[in-house]
Specification:
The chain is an alpha+beta fold and 305 residues long. Helices cover 34% and strands 20% of the residues.
Length: 305
Amino acid sequence: MTTPMRYKDFPPGWDHLKIPLSSREAALAGLALYSACRPRAMWLQRAAWLWIRLLGPTSLPGRSVVWSPPVDAAWEELSQTLRDLVGPFDSLAGYNRMQAARPGLALLLLARGVPRAFVKVRKGNSESLTNEERALRVLADYHPRTFRVPTPLGSGVVKGWQYLAVTPLPAQLHRVPSHPPLGQILGEVELALAGCPKPHGIAPGWRPMHGDFAPWNLRQMRGGALFLIDWEFAGWGPAGADEVFYRATAAALSNSAREVRGSPEAMRFWRERINQRPSNARDLRLARGLAAALEQRSVARDRST
């Protein structure tokens, strides 16, 4: 793409999503990248969706800007590499992570408004992208029944920028599932990832886990299909750690005082991880909610003892 393209931020002023203004289809596909979890954010996204469909993307609030992926001088070569990998594309949507602990850039490659690939891009060698590709390939061989995952399309390094391309989610709004079958999902996660190498020094009894199993990564599509995305932190942890994190983040996002149950080891695991993560002003509200949820004293006990 040599012609400069114009975009609008969503949500306005956040520098989170770059919504392309090239067509209704491209703008709607970009808007679908937003994994809204809180009720206000979900209503805002749905309102923007209807606004684009009725009046077009240029009617979105905010000033339009010229934007290109911030990958130094590597974009021309990287974009050609991606075309060779996934086929031609004529526009893209940009996605900037807002969490200080999980920085990164992602691009949704579009051809006439239809998504061709979702590409994560990092400066230098990214162990998390390598880890995600490994996990996705293991999951592709396992074929989980309760959820779907993106299929890896390819990876590599261009002028010091590492990329991982995967199949995109359907270009439609998705939501947090109301009553997901957590036991079935996490049972399949554990069985699938058991084929990954077990790092040296893992504590006895630790099991394979998604590592970021939260409402923003478990999404329900129209028709009910569940997608589990973002496998960068797949690894090993205490039994039940994924479920503890899901319930804690759900409680934090809803500002709920609901009790989060889990083993002492799983609760301690997440408290330590959250305390070690870097944070910014946008992280603070969620971090406080997580800390409050994980401080609950009620613990599920082993009935066999």
